[in-house]
Amino acid sequence: MSRQIIFDFKQNARLQNWETMDDVVMGGRSEGDISLSAEGYGRFSGQVSLENNGGFSSVRYNPEDLKVDPEDQITIRLKGDGKRYQFRVKHDKQAYASYITYFETTGDWEEISILLSDLYPTFRGKTLDQPNFNHHAIQQLGFLIANKKAQDFELLIDKIILISE
After folding, report:
1. What does residue 135 show for φ and ψ, rounded to 5 degrees?
2. Side-chain half-sphere of 45: how many Cα atoms within 13 Å?
3. Which residues have CB under 8 Å from 114's CB, separation 6+?
4. 164 φ/ψ angles, rounded to the nearest 5 degrees
5. In angstroms, rounded to a whole number, what is the distance separating the alpha carbons of residues 82 and 88?
6. Is the dihedral of CA 12, 85, 100, 28 positive or negative?
7. Closest-CA residue to 26 (of 124, 102, 97, 109)
8. pLDDT of residue 16
9. DSSP-assigned letter for residue 129
10. What is the DSSP letter of 116?
11. How far apart are CA 85 and CA 102, in angstroms?
12. pLDDT string in tens for the chain (165-residue length)
């Protein structure tokens, strides 16, 4: 079994390959941001607004040429605020579909593990009639919050690790 660090905020405090994408691209009013917390963790935080048919905020990271196998898993050490989030990947950042899963946070530090082959394809919130993730690269990964309600949010991220057999 091998472990490859995709991103460790304590080791790499540079956020240049991270970007936020909110519903403002569709006229909404949500505001999200990625920053470093005082303790050196990635901090995805902001406010989701339902105004103007909005309702989501997301953050994305574009890793350099990340080779994967569909049977690999991603482990993320994080601390949420008790809200539900979505983890997303794209095998090609130009592709319209994202492969996703949801996870609940507890308010405590925890480690979540996601099998890549369990990620299912979606586009603009609709599940696509296509196979689950079956690619050999990840060009983009990220987190999204869209719980159909106006709310403040904060997700602290320590590290993201790829685990291969």
Report:
1. -105, 175
2. 12
3. 73, 74, 75, 76, 87, 101, 103
4. -115, 150
5. 19
6. negative
7. 124
8. 85
9. S
10. G
11. 6
12. 899 999 999 887 778 889 999 998 788 899 999 999 999 999 999 999 999 988 999 999 999 889 999 999 999 999 999 999 999 999 999 999 999 999 999 999 999 999 999 999 999 889 999 999 999 999 999 999 999 999 999 999 999 999 998
- Tell me the HSE value of 74 on the side-chain side, using a 13 A CA sphere: 26
The two counts, helices (H) then strands (E), for the chain are: 0, 15
For residue 7, give both structure tokens.
Answer: 């991103």
The two beta strands, 84-90 and 140-145, are antiparallel
Measured CA to CA, the distance from residue 22 to residue 90 in angstroms comes to 17
Closest C-alpha among 51, 53, 151, 60 to residue 105? 151
Task: Tell me what percent of the chain is helix, strand and coil, each rounded to the nearest 5.
Answer: 5, 55, 40
